[in-house]
Specification:
The complex is a heterodimer. Helix content of chain A is 28%, strand content 16%. Chain A has helices at 2-7, 11-35, 60-79, 100-108, 145-149, 175-179, 222-226, 232-236, 261-268, 304-307, and strands at residues 45-49, 55-59, 86-91, 119-124, 131-136, 155-157, 163-165, 186-187, 215-216, 242-246, 251-253, 258-260, 283-286. The longest helix of chain A has 25 residues, at 11-35. Chain A is globular and about 75 Å long. The longest helix of chain B has 34 residues, at 194-227. Chain B is globular and about 75 Å long. The two termini of chain B are 12 Å apart. Chain B is an all-alpha fold. Chain B has helices at residues 2-13, 15-18, 22-48, 63-87, 94-118, 127-130, 137-169, 177-186, 194-227, 239-265, 274-304, 308-318, 322-341, 348-375, 386-389, 395-418, 424-435. The chains are: A alpha+beta, B mainly alpha. At the A-B interface, helix 1, strand 4, helix 5, helix 6 and strand 8 of A face helix 3, helix 6 and helix 7 of B.
Chain lengths: 323, 436
C-alpha cells in the first residue's frame, strides 16, 4: 500500500493528501495554538506543507489536538442525534425521473459521476401493471443485515436510526454489499480523485472524501440533520416527491408542506419495499396511483447513457442488445 | 527382518531427498514464473485499484472467492480423509495418509490469500483482529480457520516425528548435513521407547478426531457466509452440509490426482497401487452420489415451487450458464460415478481422469453458485455499463488464480525434497502387521 501511494503520487494528489491529512491539521492546529497558552508547547516543531504550498513549522503538541478533533467527530457520528428517529416517505405518484435528487446528492458528497447513492429505477410489479419511477436511497433498516455481517464494525446503526459507514475503518470485504437485498451500497473500485477543501475534517456523517477500496452509501445527509436542515435530495426535488421527518414527532415534510406521518400512512396506504424480507426499512413509499404525469415524461431530456439504463433487460452477455 | 525391511524402504523412498533431478528444477522454474506473473497482477491491482478486476458493484465477489472456497474445500477434505483413515485404522492407508495431510496444510495456507486479494484495503486486514464483531460470519470464519491451521499443522507434524527419527538414525543416507541436523531437531529426541510410542499414538488419535470436527465446523461456517444473506440461491438451509460434502469430493479428487503424479515421477509404483486408486475411487463414488443428491434437491425445490427471485436465478442458470451447469452438475458428478461403478473401467488412468474432471467441475460448481446469484439482485440492475451487468474475470484474477495453483505445486515440490512423501513408519508398521 505504501508503495502504491508513492507510485501514483502526482503532484496534485500529493498536495491533496498532505492538504487533507496535515494541511487541515496545520490550519486547525494553528487555531489551537493561538488559543492555547504558550506553556503547553513541547518546544518540538514539525515541518508541514500548508494548503497554499508553503512550508510551515508547527508545534508537535498542536498536531495532537487537531487529530483528536477528527476522532471526536467520528465518535460523535457513532452516537447519533439524541431523541430522534428519522423516517423518509417517497411519493411514487409524483416522481417523473427529473434526477435532481441524484445530482444534488452527488455534488454534496463529492461522488464521482458513476457513483449514485440514490438511484432512480424503472419498476414494473407485474406484466400487466403500469411501470413507475422508483427513487431508491439506502433504507436505513431497523434490522440491517449489512450491520450484522460487518466484521469490523465499520458500518453501524445509530440511536436516531441512521446507518453509516466509517470509511476509515472499512476493510472493503464487501460482505455488506452481498448482504444488502436492496443494492444500496457502492464500492470505490478506483481512486475517486476528488479535490477536497484543505480544511476539511473527515466525518462519517458527510463521508467526504470517498476512499478507494471502501464501501459508500446514502447517509440520510446526517450532517445536514445535525444543523436541523433537510437532506439534499429532499431539498433538490422539484416535485416534492421525498418527505423527511421524525417518527417521534410524527411529522414529515418535503420542504413545502408538512404532514402528519401516521395519517399519511393511513390515508395513502404507505408501504415498505419488500416488507417480506424482514429488514424493516425506515423508508416508506406511497403507491404510484392518481399520478401527476405519465411515465414517458421521465424519458424526456435524458442523456442517452441514462435512458439506455432502462432497457438493460434487452442486454445480453455476448452482444450489446437482443432484439 | 525388521532391519532389512527398513533399509529397503529407505532406499526406495529417500533418493528424492538425497538428490534433485534437472526436471525438478525446470518444473519449479516454470511454476515460479507463473507465480511472478501473479505477483505482477497483484501489484497492478494494488496500484490501480480493484477496477482492474472484473468485479463491479453487483458482482462484488468473483473468482477470488471461488478460489477461496475451492482451496479451503481441498484442505478440509484432506483433513477429513486422513483423519478418518487414521481413526478407523484403514489397513491400506499407509501410503496415502501423508499426502492427504500435506494437502490439508498447504491448501489451508493458500486459501486465505484469495480473501486478501478480494479485500479493498489490504492494509486494514488486522482490523478484523483489532475490532472484531462476533456477530459477523467473517469473524467466525477467521476464528475457525486459525484453529484449523494450527490443528492441521500439529496433526501433520506429529505424524512426521517417527519418520524424522528414522531419517536421523539412517547412517548410510547421502544427504546434506543441514538436513541431518534438521531431522535431529525436529524428531524431538524420539527413540521409539514404549512410553514415547504410547504418547505419540495418543496425540495422533486426539488430533485426528479434532481435525475431523474442526473441518466440519470450518466448512459449514464458510457456507454460512452465503447462507445468512437473503440472496436468492444462497439463502438455503442445505448450504452447510452441502459445502462439507463438496469439500470432501474435491479433496478426494485431488488426493487421487497427486497420487498418480507422485507415483509416476518418484517411482512409487510398488507402494501406491491400483488397490489404493480403487479404494479412494469408491470413496469418491459415494461422495459424488451424496453431492449429486444434495445438488439435485437444492435446485429441485428452487425450480419446482419457485418464488420470483428463484425463478429468475434458475432461468439464468439454464440459459446463460447452461454449459457451466451441465459440466458442473452432470458431467462432473456422473463421470466418477460411472467409471467406478463399472469394474472394467477401473484403471489407474481412468480413475485419475475422473478425478481431474471432478475437481474442475467442482470449481465451476462454486463459480455458478457465486456469480449468477450476484448478477440477479432483488432490485433489477439498471445500468448501461456492460461489465456492471455481467461479470467476466480479467487477466489479473486469472493470473492470481494460476499463481495460487503454482504455489501449491511449489510447496509440494519443496516438501517432497525435505521429507519422504510416503510415511516410512506407517509402511513399517503395516508390514509388521502383515508378518504376524
Amino acid at each position: 500500500m505504501e508503495k502504491k501511494e508513492q507510485d501514483s503520487s502526482s503532484r496534485r494528489k500529493f498536495i491533496r493528501k498532505v492538504g487533507l491529512s496535515l494541511g487541515s491539521v496545520a490550519v486547525a492546529g494553528s487555531v489551537a495554538v493561538a488559543r492555547e497558552a504558550p506553556e503547553n508547547e513541547s518546544g518540538e516543531t514539525v515541518k508541514l506543507l500548508s494548503p497554499d504550498g508553503t512550508l510551515v513549522e508547527v508545534d508537535r503538541s498542536s498536531i495532537k489536538k487537531a487529530r483528536a478533533q477528527t476522532k471526536e467527530q467520528i465518535k460523535k457520528s457513532y452516537k447519533g442525534i439524541p431523541d430522534r428517529k428519522f423516517v423518509m416517505v417517497i411519493d411514487l405518484a409524483k416522481c417523473k425521473n427529473a434526477r435532481k435528487c441524484v445530482d444534488a446528492c452527488q455534488e454534496g458528497h463529492m461522488l464521482p459521476k458513476d457513483h449514485e447513492w440514490i438511484k432512480i429505477q424503472l419498476l414494473q410489479d407485474s406484466e400487466l401493471a403500469s411501470k413507475y419511477w422508483f427513487p431508491k436511497p439506502c433504507y436505513h433498516c431497523d434490522s440491517p443485515l449489512c450491520v450484522s455481517v460487518c466484521p469490523v464494525g465499520a458500518t453501524y446503526k445509530r440511536e436516531d436510526g441512521i446507518v453509516l459507514v466509517d470509511n476509515k475503518r472499512c476493510i472493503g470485504c464487501k460482505f455488506c454489499m452481498t448482504a444488502c437485498p436492496y443494492s444500496a451500497r457502492v464500492f470505490n473500485w478506483k481512486d475517486p480523485e476528488v479535490d477536497v477543501p484543505a480544511d476539511h475534517v473527515y466525518d462519517p456523517e458527510l463521508n467526504i472524501p470517498p476512499v478507494e477500496g471502501t464501501v459508500g452509501k446514502c447517509v440520510f445527509c446526517a450532517d445536514k440533520l445535525r444543523n436541523n436542515e433537510l437532506p439534499r435530495c429532499v431539498k433538490a426535488c422539484p416535485m416534492g416527491v421525498i418527505y423527511f421527518g421524525d417518527l417521534n414527532e410524527d411529522a414529515v415534510t418535503n420542504g413545502v408542506e408538512t404532514l402528519r406521518f401516521s395519517s399519511l400512512m393511513l390515508d395513502k396506504h404507505g408501504y415498505r419495499h419488500m416488507e417480506e424480507l424482514g429488514t424493516m426499512p425506515t423508508v416508506y413509499y406511497l403507491p404510484p396511483v392518481d399520478r401527476m404525469y405519465p411515465v414517458e415524461i421521465g424519458f424526456e431530456d435524458l442523456d442517452e447513457s441514462i435512458s439506455d439504463r432502462y432497457r438493460t433487460k434487452d442486454f445480453t452477455k455476448s452482444g450489446k442488445t437482443k432484439k | 527382518m525388521n532391519r532389512t525391511n527398513r533399509e529397503a524402504l529407505l532406499s526406495d523412498l529417500t533418493p528424492e531427498i538425497a538428490k534433485t533431478s534437472r526436471s525438478w528444477y525446470i518444473v519449479f522454474g516454470i511454476l515460479l514464473l507463473v507465480f511472478i506473473v501473479g505477483i505482477y497482477g497483484l501489484v497492478q491491482q494494488i496500484d490501480k485499484g480493484h477496477i482492474v478486476t472484473g468485479m463491479r458493484d453487483n458482482v462484488v465477489w468473483g473468482v477470488y472467492i471461488v478460489n477461496f472456497i475451492f482451496f479451503m474445500g481441498l484442505s478440509y477434505a484432506g483433513a477429513l480423509v486422513s483423519g478418518t483413515l487414521h481413526l478407523f485404522k484403514t489397513p491400506w492407508r499407509a501410503p496415502v495418509i501423508r499426502l492427504a495431510e500435506l494437502i490439508t496444510v498447504i491448501s489451508l495456507a493458500i486459501g486465505p490469500f484469495f480473501i486478501f486479494f478480494c479485500v479493498g484495503r489490504l492494509e486494514r486486514i488486522p482490523y478484523i483482529l483489532a475490532f472484531p464483531r462476533i456477530q459477523s460470519p467473517i469473524v467466525w470464519d477467521v476464528i475457525a480457520i486459525l484453529t484449523d491451521v494450527f490443528g492441521a499443522a500439529i496433526f501433520l507434524y506429529v505424524s512426521f516425528i517417527e519418520d524424522f527419527a528414522i531419517l536421523r538414525d539412517a547412517d548410510n543416507l547421502q544427504i546434506a548435513p543441514w538436513k541431518k541436523k534438521m531431522y535431529r531437531i525436529l524428531s524431538l529426541g524420539y527413540q521409539g521407547t514404549p512410553k514415547q510410542k504410547r504418547i505419540l499414538s495418543f496425540s495422533r488419535n486426539v488430533m485426528a478426531a479434532m481435525i475431523i470436527a474442526i473441518a466440519i465446523i470450518v466448512y459449514s461456517v464458510l457456507a454460512w457466509i452465503f447462507g445468512v444473506t437473503l440472496q436468492p440461491g444462497w439463502h438455503s438451509t442445505i448450504f452447510g452440509p452441502y459445502f462439507v460434502i463438496a469439500a470432501v469430493f474435491s479433496g478426494v479428487g485431488l488426493l487421487i490426482v497427486l497420487m498418480a503424479i507422485f507415483r509416476k515421477i518418484y517411482n512409487l509404483e510398488k507402494y501406491i497401487t491400483l488397490k489404493h486408486f480403487v479404494n479412494l475411487g469408491i470413496v469418491l463414488f459415494v461422495i459424488a452420489a451424496f453431492f449429486g443428491y444434495f445438488t439435485f434437491s437444492d435446485y429441485l425445490t428452487k425450480w419446482y415451487g419457485s418464488v420470483k427471485m428463484d425463478k429468475i436465478l434458475i432461468d439464468k442458470l439454464f440459459t446463460e450458464f447452461k454449459t457451466y451447469f451441465i459440466f458442473a452438475n452432470y458431467i462432473g458428478i456422473l463421470t466418477p460415478i460411472i467409471i467406478i461403478a463399472i469394474p472394467r473401467l477401473r484403471t489407474i488412468n481412468n480413475i485419475t481422469i475422473a478425478s481431474v474432471i471432478a475437481l474442475l467441475a467442482l470449481w465451476v460448481n462454486r463459480y455458478i453458485i457465486i456469480v449468477p446469484t450476484l448478477e440477479t439482485p432483488f432490485i433489477p440492475i439498471q445500468d448501461t455499463r456492460h461489465d456492471w451487468l455481467f461479470y467476466s474475470p480479467t487477466w489479473v484474477e486469472w493470473s492470481l488464480t494460476a499463481a495460487g495453483v503454482a504455489v501449491f505445486g511449489m510447496l509440494f515440490m519443496i516438501i517432497s525434497k525435505l521429507a519422504p512423501i510416503i510415511s516410512i513408519s506407517e509402511l513399517e508398521e503395516a508390514a509388521e502387521k502383515n508378518n504376524t
